[in-house]
Specification:
The structure is a single chain. By secondary structure, this protein is an alpha/beta fold. It contains nine helices and 13 strands. The chain has a five-stranded mixed β-sheet, sandwiched between helices. The longest helix is centred in the first third of the chain and has 21 residues, at 2-22. It is globular, with a radius of gyration of 18 Å. It binds glutamic acid (GLU). The site of glutamic acid (GLU) has 13 residues, from α5 and β11.
Length: 281
């Protein structure tokens, strides 16, 4: 996956340059954010730093599908790549980061839910994933019904952990701040399975250090619509939805999802993807 992520970053960089070079005419001005030194607007964008293929910090350079969608959308809003400040947005901190205006928007495998809509706004969705399980290669767990009395790891503040609490109360749920910590614990034998969205699990399983150790069960039990988190009352939703629609229409979406999942054992659900953004609130 490593090599293809770099390739994807290079393609995205060229695409962003091209867009900012010829754009401007019909790109809306982005409000808020500080002015850059050259007069360009800046955007603070929340992403995951520890989810390979989605949002991943490779020593200060960021890769993944969420990052590529964020860069495309930013370019459409008139913000070039060098004026994006990527900020880590762990699952449990996303609503607070938006409410406290520590970020302008969030692209972080962030499912649109009615509960979250009480405190934040969403543009999108730009992707649909499904909750699944990651287990050791020799495990015979095939779904959440097999987890009774087993140790299952997920992340605080995620829909994944919430669903287990609501629907599978007999499972011993262990919560960590990030999915990478869950996978490490499973490697050490303390955990029987890790649960979250299939695309996140596939990216972690494909990491070099995890090669051959784990498998994604491949039996999804939810629909996770990834939205762009915005502070409540933001007026950016319509422009972001237009950018997502354009990204899907011009082939960049397909290129981004393909390059960022290459090398992982993952195929997106083609019946649900690419999705159509919902009308803004
Ligand atoms: N998509 C789910 C959520 O928004 C799980 C992944 C995550 O924690 O980012 O909670």
């Amino acid at each position: 996956m490593r090599k293809t992520r770099y390739a994807a970053a290079a393609v995205a960089a060229v695409a962003a340059l091209t867009l900012s070079a010829c754009g401007g005419g019909d790109s809306p001005e982005s409000e808020g954010g500080g002015g850059g030194e050259g007069g360009g607007e800046t955007l603070r964008i929340g992403i995951k730093f520890d989810q390979p293929g989605l949002g991943y910090d490779e020593g200060g350079s960021y890769s993944g599908f969420d990052v590529d969608v964020a860069k495309y959308v930013a370019a459409e809003l008139g913000v070039s790549e060098e004026n994006i400040e990527f900020v880590e947005a762990p699952s449990a901190n996303r609503e607070n980061l938006l409410a406290n205006e520590q970020v302008d928007m969030i692209f972080a495998t962030y499912s649109i839910t009615d509960t979250r809509k009480e405190t934040v706004d969403f543009a999108g969705p730009y992707f649909v994933a499904g909750q699944d399980l990651l287990v050791p290669t020799d495990s015979d767990i095939t779904g959440p019904e097999d987890l009774e009395g087993k140790n299952l790891c997920s992340v605080t503040g995620s829909t994944s952990a919430q669903k287990i609490k609501d629907q599978y109360p007999g499972v011993q749920l262990v919560e960590q701040p990030g999915y990478a910590e869950c996978v490490t614990a499973m490697g050490g034998g303390q955990i029987d399975a890790v649960t979250t969205d299939d695309i996140i699990l596939a990216g972690l399983a494909a990491q070099e250090a995890n090669a051959g150790k784990f498998k994604v069960v491949g039996n999804t039990f939810s629909e996770e619509n990834y939205g762009v988190g915005l502070p409540k009352g933001s007026d950016r939703c319509g422009d972001i939805n237009s950018a997502i629609t354009k990204m899907i229409g011009d082939g960049s979406w397909e290129e981004a999802i393909t390059s960022n999942t290459e090398g992982a054992d993952y195929t997106y659900n083609a019946e649900l993807n690419p999705p159509t953004p919902e009308p803004c609130a």
